[in-house]
Design a protein that fits this description.
mainly beta; 2 domains; two-stranded antiparallel ribbon; two-stranded antiparallel sheet
Length: 85
C-alpha cells in the first residue's frame, strides 16, 4: 500500500503573505504535519486628509504614507505632524 500525496492549500489571512500557496505531504504512520509561515505585509499605504470639520473642504494638501506594516500604530505620525498643518 502506497502513501497518499496531498497538496494542502494555505489559508488566506488578511494583512499577511504566506511562504507557499501549497505544500506536499506524504501521509505515513508517523507524525503528519505541515506548517505555513506568515509574514505581516509591509507594502500598505494610507492617506491623511485635512478637512474643515463637518465638510470636505480641504485645509491642507493630503499626504500619502507608503510602505506601512499591517497593524502598525500610526497615531504618533498624526501627533508629530499636526503642528505643520
Amino acid at each position: 500500500m502506497s502513501a497518499e500525496l496531498l497538496l494542502p492549500a494555505a489559508e488566506a489571512i488578511d494583512g499577511y503573505t504566506v511562504d507557499a500557496e501549497t505544500k506536499n505531504v506524504k501521509i505515513t504512520t508517523g507524525k503528519n504535519e505541515i506548517t505555513f509561515y506568515y509574514t505581516k505585509r509591509a507594502d500598505l499605504a494610507y492617506t491623511v486628509n485635512y478637512y474643515e470639520e463637518g465638510t470636505t473642504t480641504e485645509l491642507h494638501d493630503s499626504k500619502k504614507v507608503e510602505n506601512q506594516t499591517f497593524c502598525q500604530v500610526v497615531l504618533r505620525y498624526f501627533l508629530k505632524n499636526l503642528q505643520s498643518v
